[in-house]
């Protein structure tokens, strides 16, 4: 059985990743465990057992973007050499870095990835550790699916959102938004709701995303570079 571990910075990322993998890879192919760091202690959140699985997936919620790299560095060697993990993927965003200009954004992305890779430069498992950056936040990926909002609340059509807030979710590149979480919150406010990244908020979005369209529609891959790289990484580690 192939073993893959993901380290993500928070609850929203963990919930999204769990739902994405189950939709993309299929329930019948996966055994999945999701854990959360609370201080120095690791607590199991969900466990989906499957004796017929061909992939064993572990999702670590490290509860903080600054902890993703450090937790991977702390655990990578034992996970790969002792526990038999084939790949480790880190997922976090760039939002904590206040950047708007595209040139600076690309430079900062290169700097963050370079610093991460340097941690494992002399390790023989170097190529089995991957970092994916969601730009500026994972919520940018949610904004790719403009139809998702009207599944949550019928009022929130693409045309209504564009008229009220000026965001053209079909044609805009969500990576250009400085703070995608705030945009989702503004959209929710149009129908008297709020988006606070609570567990229920994250599950509601994760359940309503059209993963088939997001993965198979080449328009999203071509427009959103971080999403394309994420899918390429998924296809690599699950081949």
Structure overview:
The protein has 239 residues and is of the alpha/beta class. The chain has two domains: 2-138 and 217-237, Rossmann fold (3-Layer(aba) Sandwich); 141-208, no CATH class. The chain is 46% helix and 18% strand. The protein contains eleven helices and six strands. It has helices at 11-25, 67-81, 102-118, 139-142, 148-152, 158-165, 180-189, 199-208, 211-216, 218-223, 225-237; strands spanning 2-8, 30-38, 41-48, 55-61, 87-93, 129-134. The protein has a six-stranded mixed sheet, with helices on both faces. α1 (11-25) runs parallel beside α8 (199-208). The two termini are 12 Å apart. The model has no long low-confidence stretch (mean pLDDT 93).
What share of the residues lie within helices? Answer: 40-55%
Portion in strands = 15-25%
Number of domains: 2
CATH class of the largest domain, please?
Alpha Beta
Structural category: alpha/beta
Largest sheet: 6 strands, mixed
CATH topology name of the largest domain: Rossmann fold
Structure summary, number of beta strands: 6
Level-2 CATH architecture of the largest domain: 3-Layer(aba) Sandwich
Strand order of the largest sheet: 3-2-4-1-5-6
Helix-strand pattern, N to C? EHEEEHEHEHHHHHHHH
Q: Count helical runs.
A: 11
- The radius of gyration is 18 Å
Show unreliable segments.
none
Identify the overall geometry. globular
**Cα distance, first to last residue?**
12 Å
- Could you report the average pLDDT, rounded to the nearest whole number? 93
